[in-house]
Amino acid sequence: MDNLSYTFFCFLSLFFCLLFLVYRIIDQRRHQCCYILDYQCYKPVDGRKLSTEFCGEVMKRTKNLGLNEFKFLLKAIVSSGLGEETYAPWMVIHGREDNPTYEDGILEMEEFFFDSIEKVLSKTGISAKDIDVLVLNVSMLSPSPSLVSRIINHYKMRDDIKTYNLTGMGCSASLISINVVQSIFKTRKNVNALVVTSESLTPNWYTGNNRSMILANCLFRSGGCAVLLTNKVALKDKAVFKLKCLVRTHHGGKDEAYGSCIQTEDEAGRVGFHLGKNLPMAATKAMIDNLKVLSPKILPISELIRFSVVSFLHKMKKSTSKGVARPMINFKSGVNHFCIHTGGKAVIDGIGQSLGLGDHDLEPARMTLHRFGNTSASSLWYVLGYMEAKKRFKKGDRVFMISFGAGFKCNSCLWEVLRDLKDGNCWQECNIDNYPPKTLVNPFMEKYGWIQNEDISTFKIPE
Fold this sequence. Notes:
Blueprint: H1 3-31, E1 35-41, E2 49-50, H2 52-60, H3 67-78, E3 86-87, H4 90-93, H5 102-124, E4 133-138, H6 147-155, E5 162-166, H7 173-185, E6 192-198, H8 211-219, E7 224-230, E8 241-250, H9 255-258, E9 261-265, E10 271-275, H10 279-298, H11 301-318, E11 337-340, H12 345-355, H13 359-372, H14 379-389, E12 398-405, E13 409-417, H15 444-448
Parallel strand pairs: 4-5, 4-6, 11-12
Antiparallel strand pairs: 1-7, 1-8, 2-3, 6-7, 8-13, 9-10, 12-13
InterPro entries: 3-ktacl-CoA_syn, ACP_syn_III_C, FAE1_typ3_polyketide_synth, Thiolase-like
Pathway: Lipid metabolism; fatty acid biosynthesis
EC number: 2.3.1.-
């Protein structure tokens, strides 16, 4: 072989090696994408609804409450943003908050598991045997065998399924579960993953009189969601959402943030969930740090440049004059829809003000809080379902999710809508045309407002 032929052969070999390398990189990236095939939120039976009438009965039979606690609860419930149709565990419906059984907690979870998982598998045509990865997050119930094992046993899933049972992660656990799946997708091809997200209220209903712990009973309600994800390129056309990016922020190293939202005991040894007065500040700081990382990933460069220039001018003006309004970044320049955690009315309003959102943007979160309450980690998916039921999603739209949780954590992500959506999920059965209702005024004040005029020295709990 002469020198020219040898050189050509070497060049050709190098070219094909480079071509193969490029192909491998492109192919690997194609299989690293994270798609949602479908999701199914849980709608409990009507017998578990908490109306104003029933909530009043629950308050009256809680022996540790006095007049001051009744007044506090009245104010909290009226301003909570919850409506008449949220759901409680069976042990509350049956009047056994003081002594729930182990089986009560399992029943609450299994009713959700076998309803939502069955429906999402049916909607997608995926068999339980086709699930390669199962990730479950339920923060405050950890039996043995695990909840994940109960699901595997019920559906007789494969022996080689990879499972992750997350506990203690709080309201932001849903996106943590998604992040676990996303990481697996980066190392394995052709994987189907099932994320199951919920919270068990049964063993965590507080029966004491500590105000910071009573508040949790006013906000948290039963719910859950099953989400089916894949990185299979062959299933891309069946997917409804594609994950663009996800950012997690954890302020557990800061004592104030760590203690702002924590499970603990009161003076009498009763376990409950403490929501501290510094919680809004902890949430704000975590959100700011989270958005600093997320914003450059989801917003157009023109908006980032505009905000940088305006911020610089603001600093210059601030040094010479007082009372100058702080500039705000325009998230609507890169986001079409906002899926906000339903932590409470104040949480939704605070995020809306921080992001410069209007009533239309906040309506899905407000209506989810009104209809289902704070269902912890699964609440984001009820908000998503509301927007789908209202037929807001069009192909190419971008959906921003943000959630907060004990620790203290703030997690957020961005989804791309892959096709027009109008299924409505569990909202189909809620007559979506009735939302938003004409008024969100809670009837508690009308029915129990007389408590405000009671004298503590003569007050007796009504029979």
